[in-house]
Amino acid sequence: MLERRAHKNDIKKYIELWDEYAQKLEEIIESSQRNVLRGLSISDNEWETSNTVYMENNNHQLMMLHASLPQKLK
Predict the structure, then answer these.
(1) Total count of domains within the chain
(2) How far is CA 68 from CA 10, 35, 43, in A?
(3) Are 17 and 3 spatial neighbours (Cβ–Cβ below 8 Å)?
């Protein structure tokens, strides 16, 4: 974060650093999710199927969990 702030006047560099941060955060979320699923003996296919069903049924709790996860990880 400090590196991004150091480049706040260089918008191109700031955006590049922000993109790197967002990519790393996404990788951490996906890795953590895989670890939890493995620990619970849930296959990727089971997870995706379950996730799809909940999303198709407009499960707002699941949508909010997905939306808030990056902020909670910070």
Answers:
(1) 1
(2) 29, 19, 23
(3) yes
Q: Which residues contact 48 (CB under 8 A, 6 or more apart)?
A: none
The CA distances from residue 36 to 33, 52, 56, 71, in Å, are: 5, 18, 23, 19
**Which structure tokens are listed for 26?**
């996404």
**Is this prediction's pTM over 0.85?**
no
Q: Model confidence over 12-69: pLDDT tens digits?
A: 888 888 889 889 988 988 898 889 899 999 998 998 898 888 888 887 787 787 778 7
Give me the domain span that covers residue 20: 2-73
